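Researcher: Re-running this chain for the archive, since the previous output was lost when a drive failed. Same request as before.
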Amino acid sequence: MLVLVRHPLVQHKLSLMRDKRTGVKEFRELASEMAVLLAYEATRDLELEDIGLETPLESGFFPTLAGKKLALVAILRAGLVLAEALVNLIPAAKVGHIGLYRDPDSLEPVEYYAKLPQDIGERRVFLLDPMLATGGSVLKSISILKGAGAQAISLICILASPQGVELINRAAPDVEIVTASVDRGLDQHGYIVPGLGDAGDRLFGTR
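Model: Regenerated structure tokens:
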């Protein structure tokens, strides 16, 4: 359930995001572009149906999206930029948000906010977070989604660690992971290496 997107444009933009000299504006633009490019792969199996319509020259039957409705769910805060980019690509999708913080004692993710479409169980869900590091926040978000009735979930992330991928594959093997790279690993602070730093800070200009 791991899809690595090795397209040259994806890899080029990822390298620009890795560069510590890349400023906030360019980093945010690159993240938005990466979200769209990764979404092309994540949505590759959406169902189509032919409908009748007229071109300026003749009538015919042409493919349009069919099947499950879609939902975009951003993990706050870094997932917001990905959601903003993808709602332009899929304007009919409903958008949900999940907020988590890490408990300082247990280091486990704790939910502080969740607002999801009421019909989430009827929708194909794309969970959005730039980084899959330890995997704790993503796994907690998957649990929240499934608790709300979500059946089909795909994770779109720009970068992943082997540890994060292993955790999701073990604990939620039905969730597909679409990413541009699985990096070497995690450092002592839980950051992906070589990585691109803290995605949230680089997206919003904070430290």
